[in-house]
Amino acid sequence: MIDARITVQGGMLTGNPEQIVRSHMRAGMHEAVQLGVRQVKGRTPQGVMGAQGGLLASIQGEVREPGGDVLGIISTDSKYGLTIEKGRKPGSKMPPAGVMVRWIEVKMGMSTEEAQGIEFLVRRKIARKGTKGALMFEQTLEEDGPLFQRIFERHGLRMTRELGR
Asked: What's the pLDDT tens digit per position in 64-98?
């Protein structure tokens, strides 16, 4: 004996499945972006402005929906962001004049005049030796990948349940 039943229920058949899917995609991406911003900020070196300004304060996340996709972006608009992330190769150009004065003042405890007096030397040494990248974005993606995966799996499961109700 074969017992077959057809039910006409659940979001897949009676609701708006596209809306349910997009809603869960958006929710998962918002959660993942919030986690990503927290993790990147936790790995970002604090400059002379601390958490109030500079690179750390410029890291932000957003969720966009171009062409029906749901895209999460974690970025910085700081002009130094890429240099801090990737570092500088030895033998590269010197940092621009004037940008190191405040850093020298704070890190070396010097007056503005003293910092201005040695800034060229600091810039030249950075150009010669290079700097190591902080890799705060790269490490977040690599090391926290399982956390992001769990977020999307959890939201996928919730979506499946809602579509089946």
From this structure: 998 888 999 999 999 889 999 999 999 999 999 98
Q: Which residues contact 137 (CB under 8 A, 6 or more apart)?
A: 40, 74, 85
Identify the CA nearest to 33 among candidates 151, 157, 133.
151
φ/ψ of residue 87, rounded to 5: 85, -175
Nearest to 39 by CA among 147, 151, 127, 114: 147
Question: What residues are paired with 61 via a beta bridge?
Answer: 74
Q: What's the CA gap between 104 and 112, in Å, rounded?
A: 9
Q: Quote the pLDDT of residue 87.
A: 94
Which alpha helices (DSSP H) does 44-100 contain, by range?
A: 54-58, 81-86
Query: Is residue 94 a contact partner of residue 126, using CB atoms and an 8 Å limit?
Result: yes
In angstroms, the CA 36 to CA 144 distance is 8
Query: Would you call 15 helix, strand, or coil by DSSP?
Result: coil
**Residue 10 CA: distances (Å) to CA of 50, 155, 163:** 51, 17, 5
C-alpha–C-alpha distance, residues 48 and 40, integer Å:
18
How far is Cα of residue 14 from the mean position of the Cα atoms in its chain? Answer: 38
Six token digits for residue 104? 């020298």
